[in-house]
Amino acid sequence: MTSERPIVVETHNLTKIYGNGAAVYALNDLDLTIRQGEFLAVMGPSGSGKSTLLNMIGALDKPTSGRILVNGEDLATIQDVDRFRAHTVGFVFQLHNLLPALTARENVEVPMHGQGIGEREMTDRAKYLLEAVGLADHMRHLPGQLSGGERQRVAVARALANDPAIILADEPSGSLDTQSGGEIMDLLETINREQGTTVLIVTHDPKVARRTRRILTMRDGKIVDDHRVESLAREDLRELARSRLGELLLNGSEERLLHEVGLDHLKGEVAIEALRQLLSWTLEQRTGETVST
Predict the structure, then answer these.
(1) Is residue 164 domain-shared with residue 258, that is, in the same domain?
(2) Residue 45 in contact with residue 34, Cβ under 8 Å?
């Protein structure tokens, strides 16, 4: 069970305040536990604290107060932050951040430098990881010779270079087309399932979040919702409950709902069928998909 696994990330009253004048709480007294092997997403509007939390876990920023432990290490007491990042955390950013003058293999080797690993071992490890992410034939390619999805695959391989305890992915599919983004999520899901690597994804996209097994929602520096993903249908119900439509249905305001969508002149089954057709038309306008009713 998840509760029996070792803790990878633990925060206690974690707070981050920006600003010299009016204080802006990017994180506000936040408590969080993430266990080994979890695959989770952090969502929330811009300014909710998602990226700040990611930066804290990755030791890219320091808290104003509170404690954060990653893989058993209290980040406030770490002397060699570079060593910690190299061995404990793997980063995947929205913009892959590859070095343009280095080949795919050389980019994957970068985090291994200075870690007491021999040149041959680094090369073998980089080749193995690139094969694992489906780029066996692209090892000598420069980033400019790769597609966006391929560059992001190199970034994932680089994040795995030192077998980290956790991968932190900040909008990893945000700059990609739908197919490439889906492939990156497939890859992260496979790494989590087959290697047991803990993966935390910051995203604005509900479809990305639904691919994970736990979703945290943040607002004003706090976690306002933390739930397990049980099924896509239940996630649809959660989204519906938070919507204006859900509010009207929960309050028993069907007549108000029909009025707001301009169907208050209809009754019974005719009104339901009209709502179904309106929903189908709305979805087609939004996505270009044809929906069977």
Answers:
(1) no
(2) no
